Amino acid sequence: MSGFTPASSMPVFVHRSRRGAELVLLILALVVGIGAYVAVGLGVQEKIPVDLLGYGAWLVVLLVAAHIGVRLMAPYADPVLLPLVAMLNGVGLAVIHRLDLALAEDADKFARQQLIWMTIGVVLFLITLFLVPDHRMLQRFTYTAGLAAVVMLILPMLPFIGKTINGARIWINLGPVSFQPGEVAKVLLVICFAGYLAVHRDALALAGRRFAGIDLPRARDLGPLLMMWAISLAILVLQRDLGSSLLFYGLFVVTLYVATERKGWIVVGGLLFAGGVFAALTLFSHVRVRVFTWLDPFKYYPVGDDGVTSSGQLVEGMFGMAWGGMIGRGFGSGEPWRIPYANSDFIIPAIGEELGLTALLALLLCYGLIVERGLRTAIVARDDFGKLLSVGLATSIALQTFVVVGGVTGLIPLTGLTTPFLSYGGSSLVANWVIIALLLRVSDQSRRPLPTAPSDEDLAAEETQIVKLDKGAMSK
Amino acid sequence: MSELTLFLIRVAYLAILWIFVLAALSVIRSDMFGARVTNASAGQPAAPPARGKAAPARAPKRGVPTHVAVTTGSNAGVTVPLSQAPIVIGRGSDAAIILDDDYASTRHARIAVSGDQWFVEDLGSTNGTYIGSVRINQPTAISLGTQVRIGKTILELRK
């Protein structure tokens, strides 16, 4: 018998571990995050914040813990993702703190809560890396994840634990805190889509009839997926959560397109989307309001002719960004508290006002890099499920950023979603940390050097044990 | 605090922000171009060069594999041409090699080609896929005669 005799001269990329580069970038990210906190203190209170040491130490401990966790559990993972996320989270914390100081009812109310959520996020990040040593084990939970996602989406509609905040029934009450289970459902749905399509993608792409230039898949292949998607969308529409509906729909179309490599899905997806928008416009008044205020925001500022419709939030955000200009007013010199919900959905205009376009471009570039690293992970991933999983996770961050930044800058109608990692909002922050953990896990698996088959001597040594054992068992 | 100080703080902060972004970009760049490229024919890159006794350079087997054969187990004798790759092995009816082996999963493993190197990949089976006594957890290169064990079944590539 022969062992591993490599016959090809195919070049093989051997990725280095790059944990050192990650550490350097993390230190820079900490400088950016803590620097923002100092700049806020100097700008708003004219002194270095008193709790700087405690706050800084807390951030350092969190990120060093995350870094050591990656070193131990995913040594070959992508070196850029964790620092990018750490930086965005740090800047977000500082800006939320700055808005807390302006509102001043209970100084640091939201920043403190956000720091607690970030701690939970990092802990869950580490737990995810620990519990998922190989991302392919998630494929076993394809249908479980789908079911769990639907349950998560239904939870807020149940009496007692469900809670309506700002017209959207997407919250559940967990004692002192509220939680948006939809954010968890997002991760579960990505796992479910990826798991289902990894198995059925050939059937979806190849089996079925061709109609009008588009390969129509068989109903039994597409059925389960379509049902899952319809259930989640129906729930979201009932809950009046436009942003999440958009996110889930986009995720569905993108994963389907990547899995089948059929451009027809984009066309079908686009047509269905147009139909959906038309239906929503005629059926729901709150959708109409969003579109009207997007088309002509200043007509409805501060309130429109009907005395109810208002684009105040959107227009205040635009004023803020316009006043900020290229390099912003500086922390403490702007008035970002004029924008309602400046610390969650509208954190981008708040940053634009005080740090200007220069900072916004840097932050948007960071989102671009996160998505690029996710898609790069998908390219080098060695299995279908890993590819689809990382595409789905990267797409979820890309779409979420696009929907919210596009909304506040007036590119698309405004829909409520949090800016990943920047905005105040625990559920979203925690879910996004888990997304990064999963991306790092796939990335670690795919960048790790290929294991080599045992050599002749090793096999010769093992042969006696293995083969004879089997033969013995069979002769019985 | 004076206007000038505040202005300097603002500019300094924006500079730090962009230094971070540029540093991240340069790491990505070095990651792209700095990856070591080895030739698979150079053998096992991770293995230390000296292993006690000097291993004689093995002459690569002549010829390329054309089919995969079950050598041991209740399906012994079954062969499937490699032209059908990727070949799914398992108990399920959609597998290319349907095993009658209680220790195999429905979709147990897959044999696929990349370049002219063949790989075997475990598809998340319950009992695992083994090369020698090593349970593989990633796509692993195999060549003519490498024995791949699935449950009580052993398969190998043949000319």
From TrEMBL, chain A:
Q: Which PANTHER family match?
A: CELL CYCLE PROTEIN, PEPTIDOGLYCAN GLYCOSYLTRANSFERASE RODA
Q: What is its main location?
A: membrane
Its recorded reaction(s) are: [GlcNAc-(1->4)-Mur2Ac(oyl-L-Ala-gamma-D-Glu-L-Lys-D-Ala-D-Ala)](n)-di-trans,octa-cis-undecaprenyl diphosphate + beta-D-GlcNAc-(1->4)-Mur2Ac(oyl-L-Ala-gamma-D-Glu-L-Lys-D-Ala-D-Ala)-di-trans,octa-cis-undecaprenyl diphosphate = [GlcNAc-(1->4)-Mur2Ac(oyl-L-Ala-gamma-D-Glu-L-Lys-D-Ala-D-Ala)](n+1)-di-trans,octa-cis-undecaprenyl diphosphate + di-trans,octa-cis-undecaprenyl diphosphate + H(+)
List the transmembrane segments.
21-40, 52-73, 80-99, 114-132, 141-162, 182-199, 219-236, 242-259, 266-287, 346-370, 391-415, 421-440
**Record's bilayer topology term:** Multi-pass membrane protein
Instruction: Give one GO biological process term.
Output: regulation of cell shape
Annotated EC: 2.4.99.28
Query: In what pathway does it function?
Result: Cell wall biogenesis; peptidoglycan biosynthesis
- Give GO cellular component annotations, separated by semicolons: cell division site; plasma membrane
Q: Which InterPro entries is this protein grouped with?
A: Cell_cycle_FtsW-rel_CS (IPR018365), FtsW/RodA (IPR001182)
What sections of the sequence does the record tag as coiled-coil?
none
Q: Which UniProt keywords apply?
A: Cell cycle, Cell division, Cell shape, Membrane, Transmembrane, Transmembrane helix
MF annotations from Gene Ontology: lipid-linked peptidoglycan transporter activity; peptidoglycan glycosyltransferase activity
UniProt enzyme class: transferase
- Tell me what this protein is called: peptidoglycan glycosyltransferase
Q: Which domain of life is it from?
A: Bacteria
Subcellular localization, as worded in the UniProt entry: Membrane
Keyword Cell cycle tagged: yes
Q: Which Pfam families match?
A: FTSW_RODA_SPOVE (PF01098)
Keyword Heme recorded: no
UniProtKB/TrEMBL annotation, chain B:
Q: Where are the transmembrane segments?
A: 6-28
PROSITE patterns the UniProt entry points to: FHA_DOMAIN
Region span, Disordered: 40-62
According to the entry, every stretch annotated as the FHA domain falls at 87-136
Query: Where does the secretion signal sit in this chain?
Result: none
Spell out the InterPro entries in the cross-references.
Answer: Cell_Proc_Reg/RNA_Proc (IPR050923), FHA_dom (IPR000253), SMAD_FHA_dom_sf (IPR008984)
Instruction: List the biased-composition ranges (Low complexity).
Output: 42-58
Record keywords, A-Z:
Membrane, Phosphoprotein, Transmembrane, Transmembrane helix
Q: What is this protein called?
A: FHA domain-containing protein
